[in-house]
Each structure stands twice: as C-alpha cells, then as structure tokens.
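Sequence only, no structure available. Ideas?
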Amino acid sequence: MIYLDSNATTQVHPEVLEVMLPYLSDQCYNPSSGYRAGREVKAAIEAARESVACLIGADSREIYFTGSGTEANNSVLASLSGMCGENRRIVTSEIEHSAILRVCEHLAEDGFVIDKVGVDAGGRLDLEAWEKAVNQDGVGFATLMWANNETGIVQPIAEASEMAKAADVPFHSDAIQAVGKVAVDVGEVGVDFLSISGHKFHAPKGVGALFIRSGLRFNPTFRGGGQERGLRSGTENVASIVGMGKAAEIMAGRLAADGHAGIGVLRDRLESILMDGLDGVLVNGALGYRSANTAHLSFEGCEASGLLILLDEYGVACSAGSACMTGKQQPSHVQRAMGFSTERANSSLRISLSIFTTEAEVDEAAECIMKAVKKLRRVQGGGNVGPVVVYTE
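Reply:
I predicted one. Tokens follow.
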C-alpha cells in the first residue's frame, strides 16, 4: 500500500522502535522506584524530556508527558477554564480540531461564551477579528491551532499570541499537526501552553506532551502518585516516552537540515502531475503557508467518498479530511469556514506525506488518483469541468 495519510498517523521510525524495545522487556522497572534500575529508567525519561524540549525550543522543566495530544488539549483547557473566575469568554477559531471544539462545547453548557474567529478563503486566521475578540471584556483565555490537520495551513501564531499577550489573555496552541513538521520555537513565539502528539511525527500512539511555560499555574486533571512533578500522575509509559524522545531528536535534525524541503518537493511533484493530467483540480489553502507534507485538493465532478473507495482498491491510502471525521457524510467545519461550496467540499482529498514517502510512490499514487478521477467522472457524469485553480495568497 502507498500510504498518504500521515496527518492521521505516521509509522513508527525504525530507530524509535529500537530504543523502545528494552523498556518493553528487561528494562521493565518503575521509574519511581528507589533502586538503581528504577533510577536508570527515570533517567531515560528525563533524556526524552530534554529531546522533546529541544524540538520546540523549550526548557525540559516545561515539558510534561501525557497519554495523547487529546489529553494535553483537554487538560490545559480544563485547567484554564477552572481559573477563569468571572471571565467566562473563550476565544478560539472556526477550524480547530475536535479535541478543542468538543471541550469548548462542553464548557458552553456550563455557561462559557465561545467566540470562534473565522478564516479567509486560504484557511488563514482573520487577525483583525482575532485582535478584536481577545480585547473584549471577560475573556478567560484563548486557544488557536498552530497548523490545521486537514489543510496543513500554518496559522499566524506569533501575531495571535502577541495580541493575546497585549490583552493579558492566557494563550494555548494545539500544535499537534505542527511539531516535527514545521519550525516551532516557544522561545520566539510567546505561547503559554502548547500541546504535542507523538504519533504525528513517527513516535508510537498513546504518548503526548504538554508545554507549560515556567511560572504559570496549572491545575492537574490526573491526581495520584505525583508523577510529572505532580501535574500528571500515573506510572509513566516509559517505552513510548523514550520513543517520543528519539522521534523528536530525529525530526529536530531533519528540520535543522532542510526544513523538510525534500517532502515539500514530493508534495509539489504530486500536485504538478495531477494538475498537468487533469482538468478541474483545485488546490486548497494559501500556498505560502502550508506545512511541507500536506496537499488538500478538490476534484470537480467527483465525490471524495467514491474516490477513496477506488483509491483503496488501487492500493493508495489517503483521506477526505480529519480521521476523526471519517464516516460523517457532511462537509467538514474547516472547509465550511473557508467558504467552500458543498460540492467542492465533498470532492476534496487530504493527501499527507512523511519522511518515508518516496518519489516512486508519489508517481504511482498520482497515476492512481488520475485513473480514479477519470473513472468516477465517467460514472457520475461529471461533464465539463473547469481549469486548474490555485489559491496563491
């Protein structure tokens, strides 16, 4: 199978698996134990913490391991909402992941007011509306994703965080689709809290991390034995944490080397082949702000659901949007926020590459996609389609 759904999850890097294996066998000790073997396991966790911190420009004492990116998101929003007092207004965007939006919906049931700031046709945050929103009375906190999971569009986090800071509003970023894929530096961007998920950058599933800037208050969701300096109790998932540290080390090296330019070349090659070989291809999102691995394309005269069935038969795995939305027969909230028509939204594919994607796979996948589109247009009577459209702003 040609795997082009790396925004859903990534394969575990062989070097990550290698460093994990001892902690799934003979290095089985509890890191809270007082004897030497336990202390050695604890040291491995701290080394991983340092690697994750280096990936985002943080101090290792600001990194707390969690069981997932969703847990990181949920726990920080729970903490912030619990400290809001009478400031019960939350500012976020219309394109957040469900791990943010569902929490906000729950908080709305408890009396919070949720302000969702819109985006432009390229998927970028409306900064003027954001500044107005964070400067309202009664804002408790703001949360904005760093990069969108469907389109790969990187948001203006530096500007948004500065606006929040100027308004004295605590600021969190869901950076789950950004860390390991684009440059993330909390030393340069003044986020207060930031969520990470290991399986988005070749670590295993079931491990995440939360950045909490030094000196800020945080009310833990999990209480118990006092692990993670009391902010996330529960015996640590040692093997996965060690694996996440190794993945962070690998991705930091690749970002420093070329910023994943090689992946971007393959993504652009795929788009070029498709646009040369098909009419009616729309490239979605502001091209200058995409993560290097993500292409979001609409194919006029086709339904994405049919394309995915055919592509699966041809041995190509991609998606029509977030993996969390699979099976839901409706345009995603992200595409609606960008102003897509229902027809355009329902004809969209998310194609996401990784460091393991090869040029041969890209070429073969492009041929399969063109074959599927042409077949579906014949079956569905797609008729005449328009020219290639690229959003360049």
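The domain at 2-8+259-390 is CATH 3.90.1150.10 (Aspartate Aminotransferase, domain 1).
Hope that gets you unstuck.
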